[in-house]
Amino acid sequence: MTQSLSWMRDGDRLALVGELDQDVLNPLWDARVEAMTGVTCIDLSQISRVDTGGLALLVHLISLAKKQGNNVSLTGVNDKVFTLAELYNLPADVLPRQ
């Protein structure tokens, strides 16, 4: 199976589809400013896997949105993402749940 990551905007919602894996993050990283403009919700319900690179990208996207003046929440998050964040001792508010 080929790894992939795609995303689409629906108003203030950014929906991610596929895998948040270090091998497929570059296109979203390159488009991060445009992708996050006006976003208040990141939907991960169609994400099948997240590795440490994906977690780092999520943290960066949320931080970027905050710098743009937006409060962002996550929806459709697998508990494994929060477990990974806990393993890295990230504060609970770094990945805000909806």
Automatic annotation (TrEMBL):
InterPro entries (alphabetical): MlaB (IPR049743), MlaB-like_STAS (IPR058548), MlaB_ABC_Transporter (IPR052746), STAS_dom (IPR002645), STAS_dom_sf (IPR036513)
Organism encoding this protein: Citrobacter telavivensis
STAS domain sequence ranges: 14-98
Matches recorded under Pfam families: STAS_2 (PF13466)
Record-linked SUPFAM superfamilies: SpoIIaa-like
Gene name linked to the record: mlaB
Protein name: Lipid asymmetry maintenance protein MlaB
